[in-house]
Design a protein that fits this description.
Order of helices and strands: EEEHEEEH
CATH architecture: 2-Layer Sandwich
Strand content: 25-35%
CATH class: Alpha Beta
Oligomer: single chain
Structural class: mainly beta
Largest sheet: 3 strands, antiparallel
Number of domains: 1
Number of strands: 6
Helix content: 10-25%
Radius of gyration: 24 Å
CATH topology: NE0471 N-terminal domain-like
Shape: globular
Strand order of the largest sheet: 1-2-3
Length: 121
């Protein structure tokens, strides 16, 4: 509106480019296999396969007891994780993560699928 009246917009040109939103498919697990008490494998939607052992997972735990929430600095002393650690059980958290219950009693880590995928790289 100009001076209390609508202005003529017939010559109006929108200089912004039209935008499109592209939804990319997230890479998700299609199969999670507990190979044994020490190892799991994941088959992903892009046909990749990754393997994780209990010690690697425990030493990489992203929980607040193992990683400082403010700084991201690792708190966990990796040497304190026994080489004969096993996974007592595995739980799916929603549609985005796994939770492992380890033989040392630790069970607070939520391992997002994105985190697990990056861990395998």
């Amino acid at each position: 509106m100009v001076g209390g009246q609508w202005s003529d917009l017939s010559n109006f040109t929108n200089h912004r480019q039209p935008t499109t939103t592209t939804i990319t498919n997230m890479i998700e697990p299609v199969q999670i296999i507990e190979e044994n008490e020490r190892e799991i494998s994941i088959k992903w939607s892009d046909d990749a396969e990754t393997r994780y052992d209990a010690v690697q997972l425990r030493r990489s735990c992203p929980c607040a007891s193992c990683v400082n929430e403010w700084t991201g600095e690792k708190i966990l002393n990796e040497a304190s994780v026994s080489e004969d650690l096993v996974i007592d059980s595995t739980s799916v958290v929603g549609r985005y993560a796994l939770n492992f219950h380890f033989s040392d009693g630790h069970e607070t880590g939520i391992y997002s699928f994105q985190f697990l995928r990056k861990l395998a790289e």
